[in-house]
Amino acid sequence: MGSFKATRMQLLILKRKIKLAKKGHKLLKEKRDALILEFFSNLKEIKQLRTEIGNKFQKGLTVLSKAQAMQGIIDVERFALGVSPNLEIEFGSKKIMGLEMPNISEVRTEEQWHGFIESSVELDNAIVQFRNFLPALLKLSAKQLAFQRLGEEIKKTKRRVNSLEYIVIPRLAGASDTIEFKLEELERENFTRLKMIKSKVTK
């Protein structure tokens, strides 16, 4: 922090700095707590999406296996080449305590496909299952990116909170106490000096 002159003006400046530092500390703690809540909320959603994706993927594989058994792997692969790739994704973002978070609000896939061969009911079902699987997978990717950003921001905010709490504020408070002590000493010395002068004058 460096040295401070023992003046009332310097003491006033330090007290203002302490007040600002404490206010900043309070706001950063509130930000940290809000980010942590969002972090665990995101974690819960990620776990739910992973479970959902796992179930859908397993269901899709089961239906696809039936389609391969009915039509053969080669025909299924040839048919897959004609599946419409049309995909619409609506991106968005939301702010949490000033931190911008990626968000996928909606995923739409083309319901029609154009096969080179006649498909079976099993193959049609497999296509539907995997199309239903895709939106959840994309949303999971966005959630995991947001989760990572939250973790990084929480670490950064914690460092700032700790710096203010354990370094900046104690140093400012220590400097303030030192100046107050020196000013009190000066006042005592001045009082003693004035008393001595008054005593000499009255003799």
Written overview of the protein:
This protein has 203 residues and is mainly α. It has one domain (8-195): Orthogonal Bundle (Helix Hairpins). The chain is built from 3 helices and 2 strands, in the order ααββα. The chain has helices at residues 8-71, 73-80, 121-202; strands at 87-96, 99-109. A two-stranded antiparallel sheet has the order 1-2. Helix 1 packs across helix 2 and helix 1 runs antiparallel to helix 3 (121-202). It is rod-shaped and about 125 Å long. The model has no long low-confidence stretch (mean pLDDT 83).
Which key phrases capture this entry?
203 residues, mainly alpha, two-stranded antiparallel sheet, 3 helices
Work out the number of β strands: 2
Order of helices and strands: HHEEH
By secondary-structure content and strand pairing, the structural class works out as mainly alpha
Supply Rg. Answer: 34 Å
Low-confidence stretches: none
What is the average per-residue confidence, as pLDDT, rounded to a whole number?
Answer: 83
The CATH architecture term is Orthogonal Bundle
**Widest β-sheet, arrangement of strands:** 1-2
**Domains, number:** 1
CATH topology: Helix Hairpins
According to CATH, what is the class? Mainly Alpha
Query: Main beta sheet, described?
Result: 2 strands, antiparallel
Tally of contiguous helical segments: 3
- Helix % is over 70%
